[in-house]
Every structure is written in structure tokens, then in C-alpha cells.
Amino acid sequence: MSQQGGSPARHEDDWWGQLYDDATEDTGPTAGSDSLDDRFTSARNAVTGRPGGATGGTSPRDPRAEPRREPAVPLQRAASPAPTPPAATGRDAAPAPAGQGTAPPPGTAPPRQRAPWEPPADEPGSPATFPPPPAEDGYRTQAPPAAGRPFAQPRVDRPSPPPHADGFPAPPRADRLPAPAAQPRVDRPSPPPHADGFPAPPPADRPPAPAAPPSATPPSPPPPPPPPSSLDYVGSGPPTYDPEPTALPAADPDDLGELVADTVLDGARYGACTLRAVSLRGDSGRYRGEPRRDALLTARFGTGEQALLLVAMATGARAAPGAHLAAAEACRLIGRAVGRSHRGLVADIRAARRGELKSGLHRLTDRSLGRLRAGALEQGLDAEEYTASLRCLLLPADPDCRTRVFFGAGEGGLFRLRDGEWQDVEPRVSAAEVGEPVLGFGSPPAETPEGDRLTMDLGIPTPPSPYEPAPEPPREPFRFRASVARPGDVLVMCTGGLADPLRGEAALCAYLARRWSRRAAPGLAAFLADAQVRVKGYADDRTAAAVWEA
Predict the structure, then answer these.
(1) In this structure, are strands 263-270 and 273-280 parallel, antiparallel, or unpaired?
(2) For the chain, what percentages of helix, strand and coil (3-state, to nearest 5) are there?
(3) Three-class HEC string of 58-105
(4) CA–CA separation, 53 vs 65, rounded Å?
(5) pLDDT band per the 50, 70, 90 thresholds, residue 459
(6) What is the pTM of this model?
(7) Which of 26, 54, 81, 302 has the most beta carbons within 10 angstroms of its beta carbon?
(8) Cα 15 to the chain's mean position, in Å?
(9) Burial class of residue 327, CB neighbours in 10 A (0-12, 13-18, 19+)
């Protein structure tokens, strides 16, 4: 019989039948001691695994009477229930096994009872059996099988936690939940700002970041803003008038073509030069609602390398009702005259014929101003009121020709910016030249240096031109200058509204020299911002044309 459970009896293991057959008399119960020492020895043997009976173990044992140890039953065999022996009565009935009320044979120690927690001893030739590790889930724990008994233990279900007051089950305990795996951090792009400039609100799945705790160290002051690219004014203080237009000039519904815009801006690039031109109303005219008295004309005559650029600007008489009309007409007259003669002018500029250029342009200027005065007489206006100062600049489009020609009559200025320094190149005239009449246009009789009398001495009057009336002598001297530009030069021609502050305010000269000394010409908007920098005490209209040499 095996202590591991019932199994079919084998011939070599039928020791029970050999000892207790019909020929063997019953020995009766064996007297054994039941003292404290015997119980201690039995407990020690059970713990340490030493052989010995449960009632002492001090008497010698008969090796022939000691039962043989059975090999450990494999798990798959132990799982099957033991067969039940057939029932017997009388002498054929087998005695009960040890531990069930029948003592073992005399001289034989009963088999040692193994504790439930004691692992079975390894038998030679038998594989070692190990119980599987306990399986643990979040709520139930399955105890390991007893040593040598690989049957499943009953499942114990723990009661569910009571629900919350709101009816939902309580969350699982935090100490029994598996630790969440670390997820990679994904940086979401910031949402673009709204059209009104304010940042977009954070999305609903991203709560707003908590505010940083206040630190004991005061924050550092923000850096100073960069200096502005353009100024509003220079000098000791701001001008009296507002920097922007205030009132519009009065308009005649029947003469809307006579309206003049507050600001005119233009530009071009031909050959080796870049042109920027602007004409804007002064602070006083903007405040009083007066029209701009300055006029600006930029025109190109011809094509290709034979083209000629003309920049003309005129200023009407101060406090005259039609000053802006006189300035615009002066520009149209000189433009028409230059356009008709542009081929001869281009040839003279290329050949550097200074004498021919000066005399021809002087004649064109006098005729244009003479026609202007003649138109004033036809309109019944005073010639002194319907007049204008005129200044012009000729620029050939040929990149190999760097000759720049200036001519005109009246107030204004001509400056050159070279190596960061301003040069006033306005042509100087002597006092004797002021008011000198032009020969052939109504001049009185005069003598030559050799003493010869002119045609008027013969008594033959100068006939009037059948095409245009004879103009009066110009009030202002004619100014002419032809120069060769160098790479990097900036030539500036302007009316009195900008020439006077350039001559009288050093801060304006320094500012424009810093802005316009760069190799590349500024854009139209930047040039306009530079040209309208105001100076206290100078509130007239400003018209300027600048040429940057590549």
C-alpha cells in the first residue's frame, strides 16, 4: 500500500499479504510508551526526516521487516482516484491500513507521516516534482497544491467592494493595478494666432499650464527697443503743425482736373543710375487746406540707349491763388520742349558739348517761362502772380554715359552726397547776371564790347513770333551745371522747401547722409519717409529727386 493514494497492487509490493496471511497468527496490539520524550523524538524525526517510529524509535529494527520505499507516483498517475478493494467478511477481510486503528507488525516502525508543508523526498531514479508558482490576479489568489498532491485547490472569490454613494462601483486599489507603461512624449505644435492678434485658446484635452510660482528675485527689465528706422522730426523740438494731412483744398465741380494730390511718388532705374522722386504738401498747406504749390514731372523720351530721362519740378508764387496751376503748367511746357529736342540733347551730352548744351537749354527755359507769363496776360492775371521757379535734371539712359546735366531758374538747391559728406553744388551766378535779358526776346538796344551796335540801332523793330508771343525777360538768372558722376555718388535736386532746412539744420543733413549713404537705393516708401522728416520752422512744400550711381 502506498501513502500517495491507492494504486493497483503488484507482486513485489504484496508485503502486506505475506505478513498477514492465514498461516500467521495475530500478534495483537504492540505495547508502546507514550511519554514526553517519545513525543519529542517523534516530532524531531518528522521534522528532520530521521527514521524512527512514532512511539520511540530506540529499539533495534529488523532490516528484513522494514518495508521497502515506493517510488514517488508521477503527477499524471496521482491524479486518478485509487481503486476500491472488494468487500470481504470474516477471515478474508483485509485488516485496515496503519493509521486507521490497526497497529503495524511487531518490530516494524510504522511509516512516518509527512506534514502537509513538507516536500516529498526525492527517490533515486524518480524525477523531482515542484509545485507550480501561485497565480495571482487583481482580486483572487490561488494557493499552491500540497506537497506531493498536485490537485487544484478550491477557488476563493473575494467579495466585490461596495459601490459608491452615486451608484458607480469603486475603482480598483492602486496597489493592485499594474504600473502603466511610459508613453513617448509628443510635442504638439502651437496653434496659429487668431486674425485679431490674440493667441488661440488651448484645446479641451490640454488643460492650461499652471502659473509659475512667484520668485523672490525681481524680473529683469526688458531690453530697450531698437532705434526707429525713420524719424518724425529733427531739431530742438517738434514742429507746430500735425505730421499728417488735416484739411483738403476746396474743389470746383467744373474744374476737377485742377485738383492736386497731397503726395506724388515716383522712381525708375536706367543704366547705372537709380531715380527716386517725391513731392509732398508742407505742414502749413495741410493745416490750412491749401493745394500743393510744388509740381513734379518725370518723363522718358526715346527708347534704348537713345532714351533721355527728364525730371522737372516747379514752385508757384507764394500766396497766389493759382500758384499750383502755374507750377504744373511750367513743368508741362519744359517737358514738351525737351521732348521735341531730345535727340539733339542726347547727342550733345554724349559728345560733352557743354557750350551747345548751355545755350540750347537756356533758350528752352526762357521760352517756357515766357509762354507762362504770356498765358497770365491772356487770363487777365498779373505776371508776378502767375509764375514759377523751374529746375530740371537730364539723365541719359546709356550706361556708358555718366554725364548729369542740371539747368533751371529760380529758388531751390542742388547737392551731392559723396563719401558720406554733403556738397552744395548749386551753380553760382553773379549780381550782374540777375535780370539780364536774353538776346532776341524783346531786349533793348545794346552795344557789343567792340562798340558795335546791335540790330535795334538800325531802327528795325524785332518782329513778334507768329507762333508764340515774345516773353518778358526772366526775373531769375539761368543756372546750368554739367558734371560726371562717380560710382557711389548721390545727386539730390530739390525745391526751396527741402533746400532751406538742408542748409540750416545740421541734424537733418546728418540723418539723411546716414540714410542715403548706403550702396543700394532705398525703396519708394523708405525714400518718402526720409524726405518728409520735419524741422521746426520749415513748413513749405517739399519736392526732391535723388539719383544713386551704381
Answers:
(1) antiparallel
(2) 25, 15, 60
(3) CCCCCCCCCCCCCCCCCHHHHCCCCCCCCCCCHHHCCCCCECCCECCC
(4) 13
(5) very low
(6) 0.55
(7) 54
(8) 98
(9) buried
SS3 497: helix
3-state secondary structure of 221: coil
Helical packing angle, 506-516 and 524-531, nearest 10°:
170
pLDDT tens digit sequence for 376-404: 888 888 888 899 999 999 999 999 999 99
Sign of the four-CA dihedral 298, 303, 304, 305: negative
Chain mean position to CA 244? 33
* Distance, C-alpha 304 to centroid of its chain: 44
Q: What is the pLDDT of residues 280-297, one digit of tens each?
A: 999 999 999 999 999 999
For cell 486674425, name the residue.
195
Helix (H, G, I), strand (E, B) or coil at 361: helix
Could you tell me which residue, 238 or 543, shows the higher pLDDT?
543
Edge-first strand order for the sheet with 478-484 is: 294-301, 308-316, 388-396, 403-409, 478-484
**Number of residues assigned to the chain:** 550
CATH number among 3.40.605.10, 3.40.50.10900, 3.40.50.12780, 3.60.40.10, domain 264-426+483-549:
3.60.40.10
439 is written with which cell numbers? 538776346
Instruction: Output the CA angle 106-109-111, nearest 5 degrees.
Output: 130
CA distance 397 to 389: 26
Q: Pick the more confident residue, 212 or 419.
A: 419
